[in-house]
Amino acid sequence: MSINRHFPVLIVVAPLLASYLAPMLWRWQRRLVKPIVLSAAALSFSMSLSTALQVLRSGPVSYHVGSWEPPWGIELYVDYLSAYMAVVVTAVGLLILIYATEYAEKLVDEKNRGLFFTLALLLIAGLTGMVVTGDVFNLFVFLEIASLASYALVPIAGKKGSKGRFEASFRYLYMGAIASTFILIGIGLAYMATGTLNMADMARLLPEARQEYPRLIVASLGFFIVGFSIKCALFPLHLWLPDAYAHAPMPVNALSSGLTIKVMAYAMIRLFYSVFGIGFVSGTGLLSALQVIAGTAIIVGSLLAITQNDVIRILAYSSVSQIGYIILGATLVTKDGLAGSLLHILHHSVMKGAMLLAVGAVIYKTGKRDIRDYRGLGKRMPYTMGAFSIAALSMVGIPPLTGFVSKWILLLGTVEAKSYAFTFVILASSLLNAVYYFRLINYIHFKGETAGEVDEAPPAMLIPIIILGLGAIFLGVLAGLPLTIIWKAVASAGL
Length: 495
Hints:
Blueprint: H1 7-28, H2 33-58, E1 61-64, E2 75-78, H3 80-107, H4 113-132, H5 136-153, H6 164-194, H7 199-212, H8 214-231, H9 240-247, H10 250-276, H11 278-283, H12 286-306, H13 311-331, H14 335-366, H15 377-380, H16 382-396, H17 402-416, H18 420-446, H19 459-477, H20 480-492
Antiparallel strand pairs: 1-2
Helix pairs in contact: 1-2, 1-4, 2-3, 3-4, 3-10, 3-14, 3-19, 4-5, 4-10, 5-6, 5-10, 6-7, 6-8, 6-9, 7-8, 7-10, 8-10, 9-13, 10-13, 10-14, 12-13, 12-18, 13-14, 13-18, 14-16, 14-17, 14-19, 14-20, 16-18, 16-19, 17-18, 17-19
């Protein structure tokens, strides 16, 4: 029996098992922690890539946990969309963990390092589980695994005596708890109407249930939308994110912005297209409201970023804006809109990952995060700041970088939907992006020099930054590679 057929579950099991080994090894065999952590992440990525190639060749893969047939048993279901997301999560997660092994040596207390790696692996395991699960209750279970790990990771590297990190963590926790409650209520209402938790079975039964319980189904959808809007920091439910960014270690911010909020957006897209049916969702009027909110998020997030001097807060509010692009594209209900949304998930993970890790390298070397302290860093840290600048230009949408490609497809989606107001929103936001990112680039490369000696970060930190920075170039030039599976995912969504 080929082990390949078990890859859908092993993608999750590998980081989950390593997360339990990390604290024990940290206590008795510390030299083994890093190899175990990175091996688990690399194994999960390789299995995700193998499964994605299998899905491209042969179609979706259904895995029945314990050999129990769905809808009674637990099903893991990897189709084009989930295969794509699994590769994004595990690939970017692996690079961030490589970076974190060195970062943690200096900026995480020795007693907390084993816990740090445990929580980081639990976060990745939870996110991959959300991507590959085939039922809504286990979506919630994996959501909680990822969320609890995130809450604990925010204060783990703060200075002793600093209360702000715990306040930020608690704010994140109670906002997350509210979101989880909304999502669980949504699951309960959907189960009441259909009597099943399996996504495919629920999608099959919902048309009949809508005839008998129309208000119940709309209420369930509304609870899901609010819950996942909080989880993905969609304006105006983003209030937990800037403070969490300000106090969390930079690898955690990269995991949060690069992966966590993207997987939450994915969950919303999955529910819209695969469970409730996008035709029904459009008919409720909730989709139109979500479009307006997403468009507002794009502009407001950019305006808030312009007002900041703290580099981390600039990037935090930028993420609020960028999640608006993803939700907007998904709610346009056009082929280009959904394709642009899914492509932007990958591109933003790469771009923002490069920028956050680069800022982390500066903090690692200098402890500074005010934009005015970045003068001349382009000369002192040329590779780090070069990758940062490439990612920043990509965020603006300069061709042929990755950000240009996804924004261009999103623009085509707004034209296809005849939503010209949102065409203007995306163009205006690109100009606003240019204001605060060119301001950063100006300080880094053209504003003289800061005092003191600064050099590049250690190789374990620098290599992931460079890979992600180069990814902003190659994923723009070779955008056809991820689009191969994205177009199949769009077609399977019925567009």
